[in-house]
Amino acid sequence: MSTSRLSRIQELRARREKIKTIIERTCFPEQVAFIRDPNRFKALITARRAGKSTAAAWYIVIMALMHARKSFLYVGLSSESATDAAWPVMEEAFKLLKVQYTWLETRKICTLANGSTIKFFGLDSSPRDQNKVLGKHFFLAVIDECQDHTQDLKRIVEKKLGPAMYDETKYGGGTICLVGTPGDLRGEAFWWLVTKMDAAGNPHPDRYKGWNVHEYDLSRNPAMADQFETAKADFKARLGEGYEQDPVWRSQWLGKWVVDPGTHTYKFDRDRNVLSYKVDRDLIASLLRGDSRWTYLLGCDTGHVASTAIIIGAYAPNNPVFYIVNGEKFDNAVDSKIAERLEYWGKKYNIRRMVMDTGGNKITPMSMASDYGLPVVPANKAAEKVGHISRFNSDLLSKRIMLLPDTCAGLIKEWEELILDKKALERGEWKPADKFADHEADACLYAWIDSAHRWAKDGEKVKPSQFLEAMLERRDQTRNPWEEAEEDIMDQLDREAEIRALVQEYDQSNAPRWR
């Protein structure tokens, strides 16, 4: 080996040792563990101000210095936010290491003396932004603020970035890092799937496979240890010993995923809205048996391409609670499949009324009624959906909606994942986000709208006239739009006679064929 080559190797080894020493002095152990992790797919989820962006920035600096003529990527919501988060850390690192570099502000690119480049991109303004990284192979790519990305991160990672980055695996690169804090976007959001936690804040067994997740709370950052203890004392003084379960404390200081009722579309709570076998065993058994004292309703949200969901609800004249008994969801259903499932539930619970979403047209509900002889009516969408959900939430908060345990897992999952549109909230608007599945939630809403439980009084037998009035009002609201009622004649009828005629029709003419 030539003297010059040996000298070069020794110089490189010395530089690596110097970098290692500076990293260990600058970064705390959890950051070092993330940087040294050899996994090609890894995530870092922490509380805010816990040093996640600092760790990611140092990671890129180290790799860029150790591997010449390679490309590195730091992604944020915008190129400006990415630069603001990481560039000050990188610039300070270069000064400590006495590294020469050039910075092109207009293009957000840093070029090192060894030919490596660090690029700062924003990928969240529109789906077209993803094309910025399409086909480009980076030795290391970091995507920061994952909790706030509204574009499809899974698509960016697996279809845009991933394939080309395999070119760097033979040189020890091709690594993708996801970095962020717990957020509000759950459902099928990729950041949630990768870093998913259970109710206790522990790693969920259903986390997306193949990713190594690093997590720690704010107390692990030495620069924030005093602030952490001060905040801890404040929370404890204000909330008592139960402060550790406070959603703000758990998310903002411990870095745990929590359900924040203020950001969720449906105000569902497992402790409040789910019946208990220990306390409600007889009630649960009665509902599951289909006892005659209950009136059962079926709500259906159809989707011939998307999912079709069915929810079974029940109420009684002397009970002000709407009970959600069962439900299911299936994909790619044709009319015959939907009819088969509707008939199954109809026979099981002697359901006389099935409320179905028209899916933008009236064909499916009409087909269910005319071709299959099912007691299907279209869902009442006369009022805005937001208004229905607002009243639905009132029933949830007052325990006038209760679920049976173990039979409505899909519905509960949707309720706990559906959040409000963040940008709409910033504008002062209340609007559910569009990107999460809501098929079972909608089916439940349709059944609930058609229920007469709201006219009952707890513990009191409702007078027949009161209950029949409620039935009439409900029927008026959900009358089939393709049936042209002669309103001028109906207006002349005596109210009681109309009610009697309605009840007779309801009990006889409209009875399903399985009775």
Features:
Rossmann fold; Nucleotidyltransferase, domain 5; six-stranded mixed sheet; 515 residues; alpha/beta; 16% strand
Descriptive notes:
The chain has 515 residues and is an alpha/beta fold. It folds into two domains: 16-224, Rossmann fold, CATH 3.40.50; 270-509, Nucleotidyltransferase, domain 5 (2-Layer Sandwich). It has 19 helices and 14 strands. A hairpin with a 4-residue loop joins strand 3 and strand 4. It starts with a helix and ends in a 6-residue tail after the last helix.
Number of strands: 14
Largest sheet composition: 8 strands, mixed
Helix content: 40-55%
Assign the CATH architecture of the largest domain: 2-Layer Sandwich
Overall outline: elongated
CATH topology of the largest domain: Nucleotidyltransferase, domain 5
CATH class categorisation of the largest domain: Alpha Beta
- Any idea how many domains? 2
Structural class: alpha/beta
Uncertain stretches = 459-465, 477-493
C-alpha Rg (nearest Å):
30 Å
How many helices in DSSP terms? 19
Instruction: Give the integer mean of the pLDDT values.
Output: 83
Strand-residue proportion: 15-25%
Our measurement of the CA-to-CA distance between the termini, rounded to an integer number of angstroms, reads: 94 Å
**What topology, given as strand order, has the largest sheet?**
3-4-5-2-6-7-1-8
